[in-house]
Amino acid sequence: ANQPIHSDVIVNPNPLIETSNYQTSASTQFCIGLNYALLRSPFIELAQEKEKTKTKNSLLICFGGSDPLNKTEIAVNAALNSSIEFSEINIVLGPGYKNQLQINELVEGTNRAQVHIAIDASEMAALMARNEYAIIPCSSIFLEALTADMKILSGYYVDNQKYVYDYYLKNNWFADAKSFTETEIKTALPELTKRSISTNVIDGKSMGRIKKVIQLLARENASTMRRAVLEDIRTTFEWANLPETRLYSLNKDDIPWRNHEKWFTRKIASQNCWYGILEHDRKPRGSIRFDIEDGIALISYLVDSQAYRMGFGTLLLKMGIDGLLREKESIREIHGVVMEENFASMKTFEKFGFELSSSNGMLLYIKKLT
Known about the structure:
The protein is an alpha/beta fold. It is built from 14 helices and 15 strands. The two termini are 16 Å apart.
């Protein structure tokens, strides 16, 4: 987020990032937070398992592929000399680790410790699944440990871990070893054994969510957005009177034909209205309307009954914003008003970086354009 990004979608599982941190086009879709955790397949499967069988008082230690500051040796020392009697200590070393000899010397003579070198994702997931505790940094391995329902001792020692560390600590997801000195680890270990497990942080459905986003991009390739014309009057009338549409409308009553005819004719002729029709495979699937006043565009959209179930609302908003801004460059803000029970529309606006501005029976979402 340190420079302008021109893309259809941004995926960032960092829960601290906000859409406002990015400089993007107005129609960029955001997949932010742990619901989009980018994990290898064995950890996705592990997150979906309801129960894990743990070896009591077992400990896993891992500091990544190379561990240039040799935090592994410090952690092993602390664990071996702790007042806590760990039943087993599993030490995972990456292929770039250069101090394996010292680790071997440390664990020589004890049958509690086992060294694992350059293991694959399946082996790591199996280790995490059976170990009760973990000493790990606030890096990507932390998310993997969360899928395994481990009690975690963590900290940070490089700058790019700082903000993640702050967020995880605020959520009470680990016992704090600060910068991983031996004293700090020994001090935190008693707290580690008393901790409750942080469950349901990662639900194992992130790849399915990302797959839907990719499918939506593919669907866009077969879709077009055009301005509404008089021939669309009957189709939009039918969409406006769908039960799904009336459910989330202020006026629940069906709209009479004469009212719609007069209203639609006025809207498509107005200079203060941008009215678009989404076509997919050359068939109309939804409409989006922007009523414009003083540089503010207020959104209203409709989709057909099948499109409600296919995610066309997201596509409508994306392509509609693009169409609007190609013709109306003076727009400063885009607004959307949503009923509090309309969770689907709320999520759609949030995907595109709209921020909730007010809530008083109706929710006002605003996207400011720069």
